[in-house]
Fold these 3 entries.
Entry 1:
Amino acid sequence: MIEGPRGARRQELAAIVQLSNSVFCADGRGDMGRAFPLLFAEENRDNLRICLEDGKPVSLVGQTVRDLSLLGARVRVTCIGSVCTDDLHRGKGLASLLVEDALAVARSQGAVMTLVSGGRGLYRRMGCINAGLFQAVSVGALAEPPRLACAVRAWKEEDVPILCALQCREPARFVRSEDETLRALRSDSVHARPGRTWVVTMGDAVVAWFSASLTDVLRVKEHAGSRLAVLSGLPRALRDTGLATAEITAPAADVELATMAAAYGLRTGPRGFDGTVKIIDAPALLRALAAEWPTLDVAGLERVPEQDLAALLFGSIEHTTGAPTLPCPFPLPLPSYGLNYT
């Protein structure tokens, strides 16, 4: 008999990580519990939605419920990931059942939209689209990024308060405590890949930092502080890792980064969100945004179809809508997952 959906119990956390490892780390390399310390945390276990057979977890939808700050507006979202099912139980609809259950739990906690770390058919069928406009800036071994008189080094635990202070000044960001930031940095993982974080200093002051996943390219997935300092620090990070190319992903609305890239002849290109997006409580989302922008036509926007609304509010590289565009500052920037990748 299948039990669930329900939240995880304390004694089930190890088995849930084992299930996730069997799917995402089948080659024996890596550990999902270490890579995602904020997801597989004791305090988050009710957001780990599971089905079990004979007391053993056989299907999982993981989520964390977080606040975003979008140009000053506070919006609660659920981040869904680590969705997996044991081989013997696939094709039974357990993942779909768990996703619906997870969204209901998230709505009960005040979430108004979901960010999903994937775009497979399961998420498309439930109405997710790629929303959010981003830019990618490439720095190659032969590029000439700015040469700011700065020092670059690996992060240290005593840096965490200033790293958080810099992150708090970002126009679009996840709201994250110092403890959560420290735990994420200690995982040495960025976007489910081995990762590293560098700090850029001028004199005694930390002026920027960036976290990157390490694959064939050094992919900067979160950064804060001076864009000039970040670009100046990338050659050191490339030397540290032996990689030839770095790529920074940032909201398309980051004019400072785009201007710097153009000034130094760096290659740029449009990108979408690293996953998909779905609005799950449109009235509550619109009320939250109207608290910051009172002229927003909430009543009119509530009549806009869900996918069109996501594209209107945040932009989309794939979804066009016949509805009229909204005035500035829309489309709003979404933050890249960064250290909050689920």
Entry 2:
Amino acid sequence: MNDTPNYQDIFARLAAPFHPDDIEWRAGATNSDKNKALALAYITSRAVMERLDEVMRPENWKDEYAPGPDGGVICGLSLRIHDEWITKWDGAENTEFEAIKGGLSDAFKRAGYKWGIGRYLYRLESHWVPCEVHGKTIVLKSIPPLPSWALPAPDGAAVSRIASTSSQNGSERAHQILTELGFGDVQPAAQPAVMIPAPISSGPSAPNGNGKKATSWNAAVVQAVLKAHLAATAAEAVHLLNESGLDANTTPEQAIARLQSMRKD
């Protein structure tokens, strides 16, 4: 198709960290005094388009849209790889501000996450920063610094850094997910292939990677978060739920509503 050499190179370049100027921040959950907010990072649709142009060239990607099954819009993002078009779909609800345009933009970005574009932002450590209330809007007064692995490198090392932080064998990944689900005493198996049990019931809590108390979330809640495309993996879903302020007895509907309110941009 084009002069991109192979799949591995394509996906690594798509997933590489963005320049900090391409990262925007918004307020998520706030404390009771509304003077601190969880800072959430996201990329703009413009940054996604530029990344696609850079890696694939403009003639080798395309986007299409259709009404969502329950409202909103779904986006199909297609890449031409070795003369074959491959499409990944995702969707979003229309936003409160510039409803249709916002829905299109969100659906496009979420389809980009399916290709790995900007997905590393889900792995950023959570930070609470000072904020101000301006009517119905929460404005961040500062933004947290990005860790070195989430910054681009002029020598191209950023691609290898992001790959090293996200590439794990099956055992390590399974252990990470189980730990974030609250089963902190589970050790990785000797063999790389480990199956995660489907039922995830409420149980003992353990500190997560940020030193906060993790919760064993019900499988229905985790699956609802994944089905709503609020997270790409079970581990990301659990991380968001742990930061949401909800308890283990929350219903899937309550969890979705809470995470959607934290994620709006």
Entry 3:
Amino acid sequence: MNCSGRLLVYVALAPSPAAPALLAADPAVDAKDRTAVINRAVGYLRSRQNADGSFAPRLAGPGVSAVVAAGLIGNRVPNDDPLLARTLAFLESKVQPDGGVYEQRMANYATSVALVAFAGANTGGKYDAVIRNATKFLRTLQAGDDGKLESGDVRFGGLGYDGKSRPDMSNTQYFLEALQAAGVGKNDPAVQRALVFVNRCQNLPGEHNDQPFSAKATDDERGGLVYNPIDPDKNDRDRTPQGGLRSAGAMTYGGLKSFLYAGVTKDDPRVQGAIKWIRVHYTLDENPGMGKAGLFYYYHTFGKAMSALGEEQFTDAKGVAHDWRRELFEALKKRQRPDGSWINDGDRTFGESNPELATAFALLALSYCR
């Protein structure tokens, strides 16, 4: 069922408390055009929702459903809309006694994204307890939270899909985003521990990154962030000919917003290093360093980071000023399929060959095109 006329009213409403706080009016993105794209996407999701309110549960447990919910909330769909209400109810049904929102795996990923969704839908304090308990649970998943891991260990402060098992930049940035959504302050020990790990993911040797791979970064890699800084000699996929690790677009944008979430100032070398890398590699045609893999994941991380940076135009290394909101919207619009969905054929690395996940990421990215 496509309720596009009803959604048109939603999008035209004034900003609600659930809308991302950093959105700004952008006259370069035509409101009717954007609404039409969103309506088609929401219509597709209505047709794909399972009876229990879930989306693609076999792919990532409640993870995909959480991204769907966050995307709907970001585009100002009301909590009582049946599509969103059923999705939130499904997520509630996956709240575990330990406070996490997951099934058997991907506890950090699913809980972090679900917490962001619950925080966005938390009118009248409805989800206060869920948010509080999920935040406590996430803290237990962080490497070093129990004092048993030395700060010099490369894993310190990081998180993996299931917590302390092989931390990576992607899961750590989701964790930081969840803590921010829950109202956790920048100086909180968990945030500052995560910052230590994010520092070690950056191809920027110096006081913040003591890992040998960062000293082997080429000029093209310097300032960008890597997915996994652990055991670089065994990382055949990301290892460079010089013995360093490849910087990637989605990880660099994720790192940029993580620095800002953790209170690192814009004039800090870490932020400036990430921005410099982005200026050189600015594109919406691919996920830099990964090609087409993770393209829609890249789009939503791009939107979040640019919004956190707070610049309506972004100038690349060639001096070209980009209206990034309009360019992000156009990149999404041209890739939308007639049924309203998006898909990244053949992408098994990020799972975007599943149209429900790709569409969820795309919808979330659209919330930053306003």
